[in-house]
Amino acid sequence: MTEFLQMCFEFFKAGLFAVGGGLATLPFLRDMSAAHPNWFSVSDMADMLAVSESTPGPVGVNMATYVGYRVFGILGGICATLSLALPSFIVVLIVAKIWERYKTNEKVMKVFTALRAAAIGLIISAGVSVFSTAIIPDGTFRVGCFALFLMIFICNFIPKVKKLHPIVFILIAGVVGIIFKL
User: Fold this and answer.
1) Which of 88, 52, 89 is nearest to 67 (CA)?
2) pTM (global) more than 0.70
3) pLDDT tens digits, residue range 77-108?
4) Whole-number Å distance between alpha carbons of 18 and 115
5) DSSP letter at 139?
6) What whole-number distance in Å separates Cα of residue 128 and Cα of residue 133?
7) Which of 11, 39, 103, 167 is the most buried (most CB within 10 A)?
């Protein structure tokens, strides 16, 4: 029971401090994998991210559900998901209540500017971690995975191509992975 409550606390903490959305939970998940390797590894995290990105719903919620389910079954999945989402729900209720009064306050605007910068830093940090896990998982540079990354990355800067639905890129990546055994 203590480990179950610990898991709920870890996801509650991630939900409370991961300002910036689902991807901002990645640094918290990385820390969780280090502190609780019996829950999931860094390699598992890369797989969870891939699945979470290719399934409906927010990434952080999908990953919390997966970890909770994996470690504690259906109840764990439900509780991990609620633990991650509850802080946001509480904070949004509080912010909505006071937002109208303070939304033009210069200090409040500076706080939100700083929060955006912090969120971007957390997301980039997590992205670098996931990138290295995907491209250099065991200390060996995977040229094919890097080439696929570059192809998809570059395609997102080509106006006609970037209009494609993300599922197209996910399907292409899956087919390339199967064909080239990445």
Assistant:
1) 52
2) no
3) 999 999 999 998 998 898 888 888 888 899 98
4) 10
5) S
6) 9
7) 11
